[in-house]
Amino acid sequence: MKVLVTGGAGFIGSHTVDALMDRGYDVTILDSLEKPVHLKGKPDYLNPKAGFIQADVRSRNDMLNALDGAEAVIHLAAYQDYLPDFSKFFSVNSVATALIYELIVEKKLPIKKVVVASSQAVYGEGKYLCDKDGIVYPDIRPESQLRAGDWDIKCPVCGEKAQHQLTDESVVNPQNQYAVSKYTQELISLNLGRRYEIPTACLRYSIVQGPRQSFYNAYSGACRIFCLNMYFDRQPTVYEDGESLRDYINIQDVVDANLLVLEKPEADFGVFNVGGGRAYTVVEFAKIVAERFRKDIEPKIPGYYRFGDTRHIFSDISALESLGWKPKVSIEKSVDDYINYLNEQTDVEDILDYAEKKMKTLNVVREARK
Q: What are the strands, taking DSSP E only, across the chain?
């Protein structure tokens, strides 16, 4: 079977390509190699046996060329950042997804399955329990609350502190431009897929970790940020009070999920969380990274926050587990793998100051006034 992997030169994409080829699939990569993620051009870790097309997923002609002969698509290409260039999120994420289905329908392409990468971000704050009002789904915390250094989630009904719960796939509440664009990808792909009988599955990834994650993207997650700080013997900055809960998942577990829903008809027209099965506070994770580096460096907690961040998010993975998948790789192994990858590099630049200053200049990172 020939599979097109959009975003196949990226972190998740390249590992997925490797796994597909190990199973005997014929794979074509379509990737724009956009900076800053691919600051130095085409990465040398790409599988040389895969076909490669450098193109924008929004290009009709290039996408049609890439789909030629394909029987399945794993759609991983996306724009993600904290930048306020709102239209780009929808142009790259939403419009490109619609284009894939448009071409399949218009050209009557023999696509047997489309797998679409979504994100845990679609939940916003996710599910909470209020002692008075039961299950609630809070909206984004107001700026006035964050500016005052009050980090807790409040019940939207009574205003009292609410307790975080495991979040399943049933209710979404996207709160930033990236999250909204990812949810629109789901709506486009699932609705058009059902209407035109194109089997489709969507995967909502938690925070994915492992080697090949870009050093140069300000959006990239905690593992990359904390590891780079340890590498340069610097104190990592932790936002808010460091007690936010996060759900981390290893890249190999994500690849296993990608291939499972590609190959299982039972996944058709489903949406599935892909998470690690355990939540960690950001401070806990920072300490794990320091321990794996064997360095005694504590994080600093200066009271900064990223406007639009969720307080807590932890995905319920039981739906995907019911198909036979489960996370297998420990968080310590994820960190070790990234450290090994980092140590293999010969030209890693200290870009941490640049990334932090850029986000402050754009008013993404803000300071609480207690």
A: 2-6, 26-31, 51-54, 72-75, 113-119, 128-130, 134-136, 163-164, 200-205, 207-209, 245-250, 270-274, 279-281, 304-306, 365-367
Q: What average pLDDT does the segment 268-290 reach? A: 97
Q: What is the mean pLDDT of the chain?
A: 92
Residue 63 near residue 98, CB atoms below 8 Å: no
Give the dihedral sign, CA 235/240/244/248.
Answer: negative
Residue 143 is assigned to a structural domain of this protein? no
* CATH number for 108: 3.40.50.720
Q: Helix crossing, 96-106 with 60-67: angle to 10°?
A: 60
Q: How far is CA 188 from CA 111, 121, 185, 244, in A?
A: 16, 17, 5, 32
Query: Which one is predicted more confidently, 143 or 219?
Result: 143
Note the pLDDT tens digit of each residue in 33-81.
987 676 677 989 999 999 999 999 999 999 999 999 999 999 999 998 7
**The domain containing residue 264 runs over which residues?**
2-127+166-367
**Among candidate residues 303, 299, 302, the one with its CA nearest the CA of residue 290:** 299
pLDDT number for residue 91: 95
